[in-house]
């Protein structure tokens, strides 16, 4: 039995047969010269191919609008924009006219060069967007070469789909009734495949690199993406029958537990001795809000607004942002929604900043630093959030605050945004809470100072661990050292919570640590008020909370705070959990 480890793009557990979907290769494109009197004929062929491809994508876009939402449909709107892009057309037309190149080569080579620019970016998210260009390119070339595209809509049996990558159009048009899981070589949590898989509630493990090489059509697979975390995702290939039977039972129990959890979704997250905490959800796109209350989310603790700015072909102007925020707030009713201002930069680069090369992007121009240096961009987002506040209970959160200077500047810009709204007669709520993410050591160490200007804290453990321990989470050689139970991390978390409580404000956590049931009791013992996580993790965390007392959690936290290593602390945690939750 082989095991592959990747990224959980959409949570769940499933067993089944692999359906290896290798994209039908476009044959090698030959380059040759054409007679001058054939130029017009070649141009007409290309125009026809563009027209036919545009008609297909337009139909996909209309279907997406019907079945999903405007934001998801914008994926195909972006494809349509690419196909209809006048500058792109003229670039190819010019090559045909000037170089007397055959149309297939002129189109193929121009598209390839554009893809290479995307793939050369140090930004993994931007690299993922090259799939959109690939989708459009294959569609147009298919018409030029009269190649019928392989359709996943014709599947008629239960399968786990295995592919190098999936084009957005393929995910939308595939027969989802029979797709029980998705496995890909490429992609991550923010790829279109992950976004659409979550929207359709299909378990997915992505970013496996060699899945299509290791897996053969018809292989028996176990897909484990149960945690829905940024790092966990497993594929087992051709297990022994005993192992397969075990995982089938795990799958049944997982779904049974999920069903049982959902039946108790309205129960409060309260300990056996009556201590109440809030369990909220993290989302990246408006579509995710549809499933939140099903899992018992008591609000949204983190709306990663940057996704609105990262879609190709889409300009996140104020009205588009406003529609997105309103959609989420309306769906959540009176429940709180915390919108984090755009955390762009680092590994999430806007297309227009592709040429900005930084030696250490994760330590550079990102998050609040980028927003503060771009007043128009920042104020536009703040105005959109302010205007949306009349439709629900919105909170504003600033990312990567490292000191009081940045917080004061951000609050000053918020004041300017309010003034602009007042001048235009645009109403907004008067009592909007503003808070910050504690993600860097300097913020944790000066939390007492920052608390004086904040209405709440939210601890972002993903970056706090990375920056505190000097570990690149994306580097497989050192990622195993990114341990949330490290004594330094526990001390930073304790100091942050204490500073918040001393000032009378709430301390939340929205990093992956908040959704890990193994440390739920520890966080309760440290005094955390709110947990925010992937919605599917809420029932599991709630189960732990409702089965413990605060006093025993405080004893656990006190013991771990004396720990000298993450190895020792992990052993204590595992023993503690095994004694109280042996089924875990």
Mean pLDDT: 86
- Note the main sheet: 8 strands, mixed
**Distance between the ends:** 24 Å
The helix content, as a percent range, equals 40-55%
Alpha-carbon Rg, integer: 25 Å
What is the count of structural domains? 3
Can you tell me the CATH topology of the largest domain?
A: TIM Barrel
Helix/strand/pairing category: alpha/beta
Query: What is the CATH superfamily label of the largest domain?
Result: Phosphoenolpyruvate-binding domains
Count of helical segments?
23
- Which CATH C-level class of the largest domain is it? Alpha Beta
Main-sheet strand order equals 1-8-7-3-4-5-6-2
Percent in strands: 5-15%
Fold and architecture overview:
This protein is an alpha/beta fold. 47% of the residues lie in helices and 14% in strands. It has 3 domains: 2-23 and 150-243, Glucose Oxidase, domain 1; 36-144, Enzyme I, Chain A, domain 2 (Orthogonal Bundle), CATH 1.10.274.10; 272-580, Alpha-Beta Barrel (TIM Barrel), CATH 3.20.20.60. The chain has 23 helices and 16 strands. It has an 8-stranded mixed sheet with strand order 1-8-7-3-4-5-6-2. An 8-stranded parallel β-barrel has the order 9-10-11-12-13-14-15-16, surrounded by 5 helices. α14 crosses α15 (404-423) and α20 packs across α22 (550-561). The chain is globular, with a radius of gyration of 25 Å.
């Amino acid at each position: 039995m082989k095991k592959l480890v990747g990224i959980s793009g959409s949570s769940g557990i499933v067993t089944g047969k692999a359906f290896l979907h290798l994209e039908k290769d476009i044959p090698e494109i030959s380059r040759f010269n054409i007679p001058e009197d054939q130029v017009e004929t070649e141009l007409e062929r290309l125009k026809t191919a563009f027209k036919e491809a545009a008609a297909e994508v337009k139909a996909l876009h209309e279907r997406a609008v019907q079945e999903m939402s405007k934001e998801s449909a914008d994926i195909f709107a972006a494809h349509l924009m690419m196909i209809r892009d006048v500058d792109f057309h003229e670039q190819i037309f010019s090559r045909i006219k000037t170089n007397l190149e055959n149309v297939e080569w002129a189109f193929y080579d121009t598209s390839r060069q554009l893809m290479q620019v995307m793939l050369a970016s140090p930004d993994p998210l931007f690299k993922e967007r090259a799939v959109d260009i690939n989708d459009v390119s294959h569609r147009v070339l298919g018409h030029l070469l009269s190649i019928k595209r392989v359709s996943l809509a014709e599947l008629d049996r239960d399968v786990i789909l295995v592919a190098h990558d999936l084009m957005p159009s393929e995910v939308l048009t595939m027969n989802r009734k029979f797709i029980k899981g998705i496995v890909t070589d490429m992609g991550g949590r923010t790829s279109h495949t992950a976004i659409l898989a979550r929207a359709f509630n299909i378990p997915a493990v992505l970013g496996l690199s060699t899945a299509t090489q290791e897996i053969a059509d018809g292989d028996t697979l176990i897909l484990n993406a149960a945690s829905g975390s940024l790092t966990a995702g497993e594929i087992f290939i051709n297990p022994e029958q005993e192992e397969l039977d075990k995982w089938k039972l795990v799958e049944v129990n997982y779904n049974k537990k999920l069903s049982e959890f959902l039946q108790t979704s309205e129960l409060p997250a309260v300990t056996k001795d009556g201590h109440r905490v809030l369990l909220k959800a993290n989302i990246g796109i408006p579509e995710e809000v549809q499933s939140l209350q099903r899992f018992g989310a008591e609000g949204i603790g983190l709306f990663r607004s940057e996704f609105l700015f990262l879609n190709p072909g889409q300009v996140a102007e104020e009205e588009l942002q406003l529609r997105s925020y309103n959609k989420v707030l309306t769906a959540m009713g009176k429940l709180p929604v915390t919108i984090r201002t755009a955390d762009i930069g680092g590994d999430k680069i806007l297309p227009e900043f592709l040429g900005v090369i930084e030696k250490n992007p994760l330590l550079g121009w990102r998050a609040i630093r980028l927003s503060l240096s771009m007043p128009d961009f920042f104020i536009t987002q703040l105005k959109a959030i302010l205007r949306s506040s009349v439709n629900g209970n919105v909170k504003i959160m600033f990312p990567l605050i490292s000191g009081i200077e940045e917080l004061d500047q951000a609050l000053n810009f918020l004041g300017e945004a309010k003034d602009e709204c007042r001048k235009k007669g645009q109403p907004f709520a008067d009592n909007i809470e503003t808070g910050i993410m504690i993600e860097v050591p300097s913020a944790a160490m000066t939390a007492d100072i920052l608390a004086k200007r904040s209405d709440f804290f939210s601890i972002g453990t993903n970056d706090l661990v990375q920056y505190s321990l000097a570990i690149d989470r994306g580097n497989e050689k050192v990622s195993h050292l990114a341990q949330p139970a490290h004594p330094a991390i526990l001390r930073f978390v304790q100091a942050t919570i204490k500073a918040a409580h001393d000032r009378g404000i709430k301390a939340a956590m929205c990093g992956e640590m908040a959704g890990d049931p193994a440390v739920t009791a520890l966080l309760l013992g440290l005094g955390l008020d709110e947990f925010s996580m992937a919605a599917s993790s809420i029932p599991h965390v709630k189960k732990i909370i409702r089965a413990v007392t605060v006093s025993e959690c405080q004893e656990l936290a006190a013991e771990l705070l004396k720990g000298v290593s993450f190895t020792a602390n992990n052993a204590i945690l595992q023993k503690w959990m095994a004694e109280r939750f042996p089924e875990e």
